[in-house]
Amino acid sequence: MNFDNLINDYENLINKKLKTVYKNGPKSLVEVFNYVINSDGKRVRPILTLLTNHVCKGNIENALPAALSIEMFHDFTLVHDDIMDDDKVRRGLKTVHEKWDLGTGVLTGDLILSVSLNNLIKNYQNNSKVVKIFTKGLLAVCEGQALDKEFESKQKISINEYMKMIDLKTGYLLGMCTEIGAVTAEVNNYDASKLREYGILLGRGFQIQDDYLEIFSDSKKMGKSLQSDIMLNKKTFLMILANLKCSKLIQDAIKLSKKDFNKGIDVVRKLLVEKGVKKETECKINEIFSEANKILNDLNFDTSFLHSYSMHILNRRK
């Protein structure tokens, strides 16, 4: 089977299975749970889990429950992240707290995480490695989110501090995908560890790319609000570089965006191009993806499908 067909099959399988994970419960919870879970997500993380398992010659049935739990874990973080940032749109739909209310948003996030954990424990009672990797990931993502919030109130953040934050918030989750994919295929500890390193780097590149698309894409393409990063003074890779190169100019543009977002974002984009930030960010993204792929080259089995998935992510436009 070729790469594109395999990825398409994985996406269809994941979407089909997600429709069945929570059907019995209070009507209001079932409705909002499935509103989130069955929205138009990219399924990057569960696909990466299944693909890693495949590359490691594993059995998909051993990896599928974990892949579903990982996608639900990701959705839980999105619901709560939207509340924290007061975002209005996610995956082209109203966010939960916007469509219903704040309490429903909090409860929905809690529910999704509960279903995710129950599904994991039910299927991996005899595989403590998978459960430990998952629970460590939960802690890491929460710590990364905490750092992200702390950075909002700080004037200056270094690139190293930013990298630490995204490695926890985004990188660790993709590292979890590749490590669990490997562990469910029963590979040796060295290979599982190297695949985890690959996943973390993939997540790092993915997040910086997300920062980039938040500025140089639009709400229709991204399927989510693009204003919150500016309004909340988020310390993204591009904004950190811009503050190093032209702090007053970029801060003035951000102030303008809070009065008139469209005018402000046009000024921000122009500055990022003129000061070389856009180009430097593009180079950094390519550098990180190249570093991730070098790890794959050191493994003694065919990782060509993971190379292809790296490129699939690198070339995304939303």
Give an account of the 3D structure.
By secondary structure, this protein is an all-alpha fold. The chain has a single domain (3-314), classed as Farnesyl Diphosphate Synthase (Orthogonal Bundle), CATH 1.10.600. The chain contains 15 helices and two strands. A two-stranded antiparallel ribbon has the order 1-2. A hairpin with a 2-residue loop joins strand 1 (89-90) and strand 2. Helix 3 packs antiparallel against helix 4 (60-85) and helix 3 packs across helix 8. The model has no long low-confidence stretch (mean pLDDT 92).
What's the CATH superfamily, by name? Answer: Farnesyl Diphosphate Synthase
Helical proportion, percent range: over 70%
Provide the low-confidence segments as ranges: none
Strand order within the widest sheet?
1-2
CATH architect. name: Orthogonal Bundle
Major sheet attributes: 2 strands, antiparallel
User: On the 0-100 scale, what is the average pLDDT?
Assistant: 92
Distance N terminus to C terminus? 26 Å
State the CATH topology. Answer: Farnesyl Diphosphate Synthase
Estimate what percentage of residues fall within beta strands.
under 5%
Number of domains: 1
Cα-based radius of gyration, to the nearest Å: 20 Å
- Helical/strand content category: mainly alpha
Q: What is the CATH class name?
A: Mainly Alpha
Number of helices: 15
